[in-house]
């Protein structure tokens, strides 16, 4: 039997860090939304009782370190599955980019194997399992648009932002999320207005969404990698309506309402960056059903 799943990337429209927790993680409050840039994952039953990963991407591990492997292992252990699976990952999402590529592959694996192994688990149950793999996995199980709290695993789904285009540019560096959180100075934070962002989305007010974009990790990553600031400046110069770094970076995205301007921003960025994408927001509920 063969199952196909789409594993889309996310961007953070607003990302605030409230405090450091006793378990070493940070308490966050964020608004995340899915974008139409996705890995494709195929699951096939294997005769042998093993998990095999194929990705043909030199930056992606093909063993127990792969987050899709971890998701499969978690389901196998929890539900005592005595079957094997081959997981073939076709990557389109850049790796270590702040776009939750690995987390989305893990989430797609939870959804895909729930079908392949007929486990009958709800999305809420899969999201709870996902939290054991990584903080972004629970959001990726649902996709759409959500407020994420806790260490990122508590998800409240909200309505989609109004339609717009997103140009993404990833400088040629990888960023470690752990390092960025480690370098964050909690007493020097300028907190973004997360509630204002939620309100702007509710009102479908595109201009207000642009005004409310904010990410406390942006200045931390910029200090470590000045390339991020350069890309942000270029994206503003070429005419994006609003520009922000996603997650822990280094990918920078620009929101653009009018298609005519989309080409100018995309082509302009291509001059600076190898990895540039122009996609739509995919923030509707049940986008992965
Ligand atoms: C930056 C974001 O991508 C925003 O969506 C997430 O907060 C990070 O999510 P993620 O990559 O799934 O993170 P995890 O794999 O759970 O954690 C990686 C590392 O980041 C740090 N981390 C992560 C999440 C969080 N709320 N506080 C943290 O301090 C921890 O040092 C952790 O060891
Ligand atoms: N399926 C996978 N796809 C990509 N990277 C993976 C995968 N599984 C494990 N990894 C490892 O995870 C690391 C982080 O990759 P990933 O693309 O998930 O980062 P990210 O986009 O910054 O995630 P986030 O936004 O959730 O912090 C990579 O360096 C890679 O070695």
UniProtKB/TrEMBL annotation:
Keywords: ATP-binding, Isoprene biosynthesis, Kinase, Nucleotide-binding, Transferase. Pfam families: GHMP_kinases_C, GHMP_kinases_N. Residues 197-273 form the GHMP kinase C-terminal domain. It catalyses: 4-CDP-2-C-methyl-D-erythritol + ATP = 4-CDP-2-C-methyl-D-erythritol 2-phosphate + ADP + H(+). It is an enzyme of class 2 (transferase). ATP binds at residues 94-104. The active site is at residues 10, 136. GO terms for molecular function: 4-(cytidine 5'-diphospho)-2-C-methyl-D-erythritol kinase activity. InterPro entries: GHMP_kinase_C_dom, GHMP_kinase_C_sf, GHMP_kinase_N_dom, IspE, Ribosomal_Su5_D2-typ_SF, Ribsml_uS5_D2-typ_fold_subgr. Residues 66-144 form the GHMP kinase N-terminal domain. Signal peptide: none annotated. Its EC number is 2.7.1.148. Pathway: Isoprenoid biosynthesis; isopentenyl diphosphate biosynthesis via DXP pathway; isopentenyl diphosphate from 1-deoxy-D-xylulose 5-phosphate: step 3/6. Catalyzes the phosphorylation of the position 2 hydroxy group of 4-diphosphocytidyl-2C-methyl-D-erythritol. Belongs to the GHMP kinase family. IspE subfamily. This is 4-diphosphocytidyl-2-C-methyl-D-erythritol kinase. It comes from Aeribacillus alveayuensis.
């Amino acid at each position: 039997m063969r199952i196909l799943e789409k594993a889309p990337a996310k961007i953070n429209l607003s990302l605030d860090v409230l405090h450091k927790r006793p378990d070493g993680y940070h308490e966050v409050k964020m608004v995340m939304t899915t974008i139409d840039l996705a890995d494709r994952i195929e699951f096939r039953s294997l005769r042998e009782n093993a998990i095999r990963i194929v990705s043909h991407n030199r930056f992606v591990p093909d063993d127990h370190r792969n987050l899709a492997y971890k998701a499969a292992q978690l389901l196998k252990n929890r539900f005592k599955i005595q079957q094997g699976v081959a997981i073939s990952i076709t990557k389109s999402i850049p790796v270590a980019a702040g776009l939750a590529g690995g987390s989305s592959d893990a989430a797609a694996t939870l959804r895909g194997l729930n079908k392949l192994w007929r486990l009958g688990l709800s999305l809420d149950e899969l999201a709870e399992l996902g939290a054991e793999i990584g903080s972004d996995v629970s959001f990726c199980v649902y996709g759409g648009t959500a407020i994420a709290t806790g260490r990122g695993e508590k998800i409240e789904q909200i309505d989609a932002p109004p339609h717009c285009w997103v140009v993404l540019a990833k400088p040629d560096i990888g960023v470690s999320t752990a390092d960025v959180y480690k370098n964050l100075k909690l007493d020097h934070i300028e907190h973004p207005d997360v509630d204002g962002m939620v309100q702007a989305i509710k009102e479908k007010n595109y201009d207000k969404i642009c005004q409310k974009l904010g990410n406390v990790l942006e200045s931390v990553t910029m200090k470590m990698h000045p390339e991020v600031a350069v890309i942000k400046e270029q994206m503003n110069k070429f005419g994006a309506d609003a520009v922000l770094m996603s997650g822990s970076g280094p990918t920078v995205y620009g929101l653009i309402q009018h298609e005519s301007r989309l080409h100018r921003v995309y082509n302009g960025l291509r001059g600076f960056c190898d990895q540039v994408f122009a996609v739509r927001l995919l923030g509707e509920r049940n986008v992965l059903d």
